[in-house]
Amino acid sequence: MPGLTFRPAARTQNRLKMALDGPAGSGKTFTALRLGHSLGDEVFVIDTQYGAAALYAGENIDGKVWNFKHLTLSQHDVDHYQNAISAAEKQGADVIVIDSLSNAWDDCGGILDQVERKSEKNFGRAAEGNVLGMVERAALYKKHVRVILASPCHVIATLRTRPTT
Predict the structure, then answer these.
(1) Partner of 154 for a Cys bridge, out of 16, 50, 114, 164, CB 3.0 to 4.6 A?
(2) Strand pairing category for 154-160 and 60-61
(3) What sign has the CA pseudo-torsion 29, 31, 37, 39?
(4) Which residues 6+ apart lie within 8 Å of 30 measured at CB?
(5) What distance in Å separates the CA atoms of residue 158 and residue 120, rounded to the nearest whole number?
(6) Best CA proximity match to 29, nearest among 6, 61, 4, 76
(7) Residue 44 has what pLDDT?
């Protein structure tokens, strides 16, 4: 096809995009911060767990004091996460820790909540199980993932899982 031009390949520095999952108390935040401080000097934390990540500020692990920038995110919609990621990038983050990304999906203002409220408003019933609701959830989820993947920073996200019995 005309207009397709191959150029010499050039090696670029890839940035880590990682998710750590586990039940409450399994060490996700600690592990994310430990890894984050090994990857870069400017670690920024987007905290949706009511400030819990700040409990690790000043820890001295592996001979390195954990100094990081911290933002408590009380709104869990995709746009607020996107704005927080963008702000961290503009303020010089090497590493962004999102603790927890679970809230973007299943919390007040998260993807499921937004679609349910919109469906109830427009149709008088919840969107769960209907095709329109599934399409809207998928679109919001994909937007969220694209924002994370496009970040020039290392991004480490924690995800809550439920313990298995």
Answers:
(1) 16
(2) unpaired
(3) negative
(4) 56
(5) 30
(6) 61
(7) 98
